[in-house]
């Protein structure tokens, strides 16, 4: 659930009444922010250098708390060998392949050719053992071809890689790539630039023997048909997770469509100066997410942040704003980890309230 519009633009000041003290404070805040950004870039560079010196192979199961297993419907997957509580770290893994996915080119065809050559060059630089591990991953090319198709490094990385946060590279992770999709996931994978690794966290209690499932999208709230179409187009499979099998039998599709409508309402109501009605929509969203079984972590973070900003700038109520921000901090810690940059930033915001 990502939001492209700023629903709080109507509450912004034009800055015309800012006095000298406020300007000085703003300069000091900008200097502090710049120093923080530089420090974080240095941390990321150091972590990346350390990570680059490691030969990446799939992480071993057993003592790691999970194992690879064969599923007749979805191929290989990961299964828990211990009980995890919400917020527990399950996997931390560096990228076996990192490929730049933006290239300056004279045409789209040239950009595609440059990307394909970059993938092949990166693959050729791997050790034979890591090359075998990469080619053991699934490929959409094989799913689309009735005869099984022939996997290539390009088809494997296009099927299994994802963008590394705000960096202009995609990363392939040999163990994380084994985690299958569910529209009602029990874990969340997140790229941590401070660690230069993807970390997987439990977003609800996971029992021994339960499959680990993350979400491949979509980012917006869609009904079963919409979600399945998104996954079929992007990953060449028909989702058979519990949420999709339920469809609308328990009102799930209706809830998802209502969630989508409510999120649009929040944006519109906040822009048009109706913060109380916007807050009612925020609470309705949180209630519906909980009823749908996705009321934790990654799904609730943006809604809680809406609640914080509308409470602060629309209702001018710091206590309510603090309560939403505190809940957002819990959701971030559970899905991204205590000590991540977002967690640190939210804690600083709480301290300032």
Kindly describe this structure.
- Helix content is 49%, strand content 12%.
- The chain is built from twelve helices and ten strands.
- It is globular.
- Mean pLDDT is 86; it is low at 1-18 and 143-147.
Walk me through the topology.
Blueprint: H1 20-52, E1 66-71, E2 75-80, E3 89-93, E4 97-100, H2 108-124, H3 128-135, H4 140-144, H5 153-160, E5 162-163, E6 169-172, E7 180-181, E8 187-192, E9 197-202, E10 213-214, H6 224-235, H7 242-246, H8 252-271, H9 275-291, H10 297-314, H11 318-336, H12 341-352
DSSP helix fraction: 40-55%
Low-confidence stretches: 1-18, 143-147
SS-derived structural category:
alpha+beta
**Largest sheet, order of strands side by side?**
3-9-8
Radius of gyration: 22 Å
Report the principal-axis shape. Answer: globular
Q: Roughly what is the average pLDDT, rounded to an integer?
A: 86
User: Which strand-content bin applies to the residues?
Assistant: 5-15%
Span of the ends, CA to CA: 27 Å
Quaternary structure classification: single chain
The largest sheet, given as strand count, sense and whether it forms a barrel, is: 3 strands, antiparallel
Number of strands: 10
| SSE run | HEEEEHHHHEEEEEEHHHHHHH
DSSP helical segment count:
12
């Amino acid at each position: 659930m990502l939001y492209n519009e700023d629903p709080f633009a109507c509450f912004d000041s034009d800055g015309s009444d800012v006095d000298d003290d406020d300007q000085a404070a703003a300069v000091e805040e900008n200097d502090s922010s710049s120093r923080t950004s530089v420090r974080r870039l240095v941390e990321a560079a150091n972590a990346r250098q350390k990570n680059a010196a490691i030969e990446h192979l799939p992480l071993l199961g057993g003592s790691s708390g999970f194992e690879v297993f064969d599923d007749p419907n979805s191929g290989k997957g990961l299964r828990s060998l211990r009980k995890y509580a919400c917020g527990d770290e399950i996997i931390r893994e560096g990228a076996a392949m990192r490929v730049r996915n933006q290239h300056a080119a004279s045409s789209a065809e040239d950009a595609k050719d440059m990307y394909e050559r970059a993938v092949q060059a990166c693959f050729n630089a791997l050790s034979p053992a890591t090359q075998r591990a990469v080619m053991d991953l699934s490929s959409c090319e094989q799913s689309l071809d009735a005869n099984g198709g022939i996997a290539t490094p390009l088809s494997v990385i296009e099927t299994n890689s994802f963008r590394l946060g705000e960096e202009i590279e995609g990363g392939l992770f040999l163990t994380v790539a084994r985690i299958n999709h569910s529209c009602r996931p029990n874990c969340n994978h997140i790229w941590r630039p401070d660690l230069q690794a993807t970390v997987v966290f439990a977003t609800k209690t996971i029992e021994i023997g339960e499959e680990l499932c993350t979400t491949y999208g979509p980012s917006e709230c869609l009904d079963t048909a919409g979600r399945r179409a998104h996954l079929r187009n992007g990953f060449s499979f028909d989702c058979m997770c519990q949420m999709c099998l339920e469809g609308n039998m328990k009102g799930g599709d209706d809830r998802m469509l209502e969630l989508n409508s409510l999120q649009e309402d929040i944006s519109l109501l906040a822009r048009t100066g109706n913060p109380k009605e916007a807050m009612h929509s925020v609470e309705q969203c949180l209630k519906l997410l909980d009823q749908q079984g996705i009321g934790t972590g990654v799904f609730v973070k943006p809604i809680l942040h809406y609640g914080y900003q509308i409470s602060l700038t629309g209702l001018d109520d710091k206590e309510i704003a603090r309560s939403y921000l505190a809940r957002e901090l819990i959701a971030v810690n559970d899905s991204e980890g205590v000590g991540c940059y977002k967690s640190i930033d939210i804690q600083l915001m709480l301290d300032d309230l």
